[in-house]
Amino acid sequence: MFIYDICVIGGCGHVGLPLSITLADRGKKVIVYDISTQAVNAVRQGTMPFHEEGADEVLQKVLADGTLKLSDSPEVISNSKIVIMIIGTPVDEHLNPKFQVMVDSVNQFISYFRNGQTLVLRSTVYPGISERINDWLREAGLTMNVCFCPERILEGKAMTELYSLPQIISSFTPEGLQECRNLFGLLTDELVEVHPTEAELAKLFTNVWRYIKFAVANQFYMIANDYNLDFYNVYHAVTHKYDRAKDLPRAGFAAGPCLFKDAMQLAAFNNGNFYLGHSAMLVNEGLPNYIVQKLKTKYPLKKMTVGILGMAFKGDSDDIRESLSYKLRKILQVHAGKVLSADPYVTDDSLLPQEEVLGKADILIIATPHKQYKGLDIPLNKMTVDIWNILGRGGLI
């Protein structure tokens, strides 16, 4: 009846491709559908379109085994028993969920859906969207099992965490729940079964909890700096062999395509009543401006060249989506004489070689904690803002 076991819609992205590879490595016949012909062709040739630790060898293996296929044609959706959709709910310029994205996605693919298929929603969605999609499909006369099974991987560690993390699974039908057990049971024995709306909230709570923790660390960092104290001396005192504080993160830019967005989605879901989330947003989004304002009080920035090291939103990644490094650069372009930037992973015509930035900058800001920065030989007399303390010299501005 079906040619493929699994079709992954949006399967060439940071969430879909690692999942596709791991399921294919477990022997399932997986077809990746993606609208990016360039990405499809690259993956078909055995090339990862982004950095993901441990993925290259497995990708080449499943391509050689024939368990992973790729297509930029949506017709393959009809030929698959299980359809995994990697399309989430973004927020608009007013920080409200863009429901139309999900509506358009379902309408785009509904002609390819078939009775008896299982649809697994994998990306973060606004609570209640899974149920609405389930209703839309039934109103269209389709008998499908709609499931919500959120991903919780750390970008760059997907090939490990897909196997090590418990998988949250949910469905509106017993048959769909069993399909999820069989599917994600290929990756782990740790399956957490809940109602779809509970699963939607669980994913939002997961991301927002991390976002709030980062905000706490960043607020502590600002307080220490304002009193001319090194946050990392205090941080060491708080966390050293003290288990109740071991989850306090280091200070640093908290951004990317998920955390900020999901905090705002949770606020919208609760009718705007989420003061803790809004406060976290103000702290995290305000850190770039805080750094610039602190530098302005100590240095004649208008006469100086500032170098930014790291433009990706997280360490050892090439992903620049919603990176606060770019926000920092925009602010500095107003207040500094000249702004230079570099990143060993990111391809961007505006970036310069790292050595050039190191040589020309009067002030350096390490904005992304790439591991290779730990070995940088930066003179002690060069002002360096190291909010992550990656050099081990402290984070005082």
Question: How does this model look, in words?
Answer:
By secondary structure, the protein is an alpha/beta fold. The chain folds into two domains: 4-194, Rossmann fold (3-Layer(aba) Sandwich), CATH 3.40.50; 202-385, Rossmann fold (3-Layer(aba) Sandwich), CATH 3.40.50. 41% of the residues lie in helices and 13% in strands. The protein has helices at residues 16-25, 37-44, 55-65, 99-109, 129-139, 158-164, 174-184, 196-226, 231-239, 259-269, 275-298, 324-335, 354-360, and strands at 4-9, 30-33, 68-71, 80-85, 118-121, 145-148, 167-169, 191-193, 305-309, 338-342, 363-366, 383-385. The strands form three sheets. The protein has a six-stranded parallel beta sheet, with helices on both faces. A four-stranded parallel beta sheet has the order 10-9-11-12, sandwiched between helices. Strands 7-8 form a two-stranded parallel sheet. Helix 7 (174-184) links the parallel strand 7 (167-169) and strand 8.
Task: Give the structure's gist in a few sentences.
Helices cover 41% and strands 13% of the residues. It has 397 residues and is of the alpha/beta class.
Major sheet details: 6 strands, parallel
Instruction: Identify the overall geometry.
Output: globular
Q: Please, what is the CATH homologous superfamily of the largest domain? A: NAD(P)-binding Rossmann-like Domain
- Rounded mean pLDDT score: 96
Rg estimate, integer Å = 23 Å
What is the number of E strands?
A: 12
Give the end-to-end Cα distance, rounded to a whole number of Å: 64 Å
Number of helices: 13
> pLDDT under 50 segments (min length 5)?
none
Proportion of beta-strand residues: 5-15%
